[in-house]
Write the structure tokens for this entry.
Amino acid sequence: MRVLVFLLITLFPGLSHAAGSALLRWQDTRQSVSVPQTDVTASKVWKLCALYPSLKDSYWLSVNYGMLEAAKNME
């Protein structure tokens, strides 16, 4: 398989160039309309809860730390 990939790369160098140049010439015909963003405020104070699978795992422990720091910054 590696030999086949190597041969394709070495024998057909124009394929990679043709594929790359086609993307450079592509033009998007879609139009986008920007929508003004409105401020949203809560009507009352809410308490949020986040559940984690386990705080024994270092990944979820770091997620917990990040969420606690973000909550402290919001106060």
Q: What stands out?
A: The radius of gyration is 26 Å. Residues 48-75 form one domain.
